[in-house]
């Protein structure tokens, strides 16, 4: 069997993450299963585009630096990378994360089954303070872009992969189109998300026999800055998630858009609250805080979902879905 080529896309937007970007690229360049190329997609930042072009001018085809060819935001940046990618598989890595050495090898193994259209991995938090805050529940690690407690272990079939540590067959985008713009992150605006959820549901609608997997051996370590260790960010991100879920439900229907969330809120989170209260009774640090954070997170996310649903019914909160057949960016959008 021929080994599929893997293109890795890293979307970047600020020079404040310069060292993180270099570390992310370096982790890809040292994979046990080499990537065919690494694509750095710069989101409407000419200075960063020029600086990265100079940094990797001698990398040849191993590292390519591109300008986001669409509107500002993570989804359009990913779509630019998809269109330019030359590999059979397109993998995505956050610009403030580093991949373990066998990351791509575990992704590639998943595609030995021709039905598999996407493979995600496990994202571990790297806390700026050096340790998880006592009050921060593992069930809400998605708040900081990481794998959360409640996801099944091993290599398992899932509804959707998590975008910062994921891969897709390029043919998946030919069938379903690209990432929807208007759902995910947009520079320094409210921390929305769920664009990968919407895409995955759209993919399995277009290809009902498609299999999507998470393999928890495909590990990356995601940096969590000090500002995101605070309850204020926790609350803001949970609220934004509710807004995003409303957009997903509008796109694919509440039945599909909230199927996994129902299990999460009715089984995983009550267990987390009970665990936190038990820890509080036993005098363990942070138990009451974790239980309270779960309850607050659910309430705030629900509020965001209700408001997002009302806005959607009134015609607000628009987004667009790139249709199948993404076009490659013009050559002038690429730099060395």
Overview of the structural elements:
By secondary structure, the protein is of the alpha/beta class. Helix 1 links the parallel strand 1 and strand 2 (37-42). It starts with 5 loop residues before the first strand and ends with a strand. The model is unreliable at 327-333 (pLDDT under 50). Strands 1, 2, 3, 4, 5, 6, 7, 8, 9 and 10 form a ten-stranded mixed sheet that branches. The protein is built from ten helices and ten strands.
The radius of gyration is: 19 Å
Distance between the termini: 34 Å
Percent of residues in helices comes to 40-55%
Low-confidence stretches: 327-333
The number of helices is: 10
* Average pLDDT over all residues: 89
Structural class based on helices, strands and sheet pairing: alpha/beta
State the assembly state of the protein chains: single chain
Overall geometry: globular
- How many E strands? 10
Q: What is the string of SSEs from the N terminus onward?
A: EHEHEHEEHEEEHHEHHHHE
Keywords summarizing the entry:
336 residues, alpha/beta, ten-stranded mixed beta sheet, 10 helices, 40% helix
Outline of this structure?
With 336 residues, this protein is of the alpha/beta class.
Q: What's the SSE blueprint?
A:
Blueprint: E1 6-12, H1 18-29, E2 37-42, H2 46-55, E3 63-67, H3 74-84, E4 89-93, E5 97-99, H4 103-110, E6 116-127, E7 155-157, E8 165-169, H5 170-176, H6 195-206, E9 211-224, H7 231-252, H8 254-257, H9 259-281, H10 287-313, E10 334-335
Parallel strand pairs: 1-2, 1-4, 2-3, 6-9
Antiparallel strand pairs: 3-10, 4-8, 5-9, 6-8, 7-9
């Amino acid at each position: 069997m021929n080994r599929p080529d893997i293109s890795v896309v890293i979307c970047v937007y600020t020079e404040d993450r310069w060292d993180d970007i270099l570390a992310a690229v370096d982790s890809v360049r040292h994979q046990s299963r080499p990537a065919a190329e690494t694509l750095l997609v710069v989101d409407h930042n000419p200075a960063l585009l020029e600086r990265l072009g100079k940094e990797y001018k001698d990398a040849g085809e191993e590292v390519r630096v591109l300008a986001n060819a669409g509107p500002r935001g993570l989804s359009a940046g990913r779509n630019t990378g998809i269109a330019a990618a030359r590999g059979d598989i397109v993998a995505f890595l956050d610009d403030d994360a580093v991949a373990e050495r066998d990351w791509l090898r575990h992704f590639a193994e998943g595609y030995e089954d021709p039905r598999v259209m996407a493979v995600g991995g496990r994202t571990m938090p790297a806390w700026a303070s050096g340790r998880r805050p006592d009050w921060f529940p593992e069930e809400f690690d998605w708040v900081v872009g990481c794998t959360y407690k409640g996801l099944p272990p091993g290599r398992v079939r899932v509804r959707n992969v998590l975008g910062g540590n994921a891969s897709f067959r390029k043919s998946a985008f030919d069938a379903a189109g690209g990432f929807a713009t208007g759902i995910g992150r947009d520079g320094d605006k409210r921390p929305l998300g769920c664009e990968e959820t919407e895409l995955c549901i759209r993919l399995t609608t277009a290809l009902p026999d498609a299999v999507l997997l998470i393999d928890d051996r495909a590990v990356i370590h995601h940096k969590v800055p000090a500002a995101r260790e605070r309850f204020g960010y926790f609350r803001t991100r949970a609220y934004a998630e509710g807004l995003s879920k409303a957009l997903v439900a509008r796109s694919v229907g509440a039945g599909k858009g909230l199927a996994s969330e129902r299990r999460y809120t009715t089984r995983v989170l009550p267990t987390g609250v009970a665990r936190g209260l038990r820890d509080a009774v036993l005098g363990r640090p942070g138990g009451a805080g974790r239980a309270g954070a779960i309850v607050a997170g659910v309430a705030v996310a629900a509020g965001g979902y209700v408001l997002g649903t009302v806005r959607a019914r009134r015609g607000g909160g628009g987004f667009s879905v790139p249709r199948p057949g993404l076009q490659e960016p013009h050559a002038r959008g690429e730099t060395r």
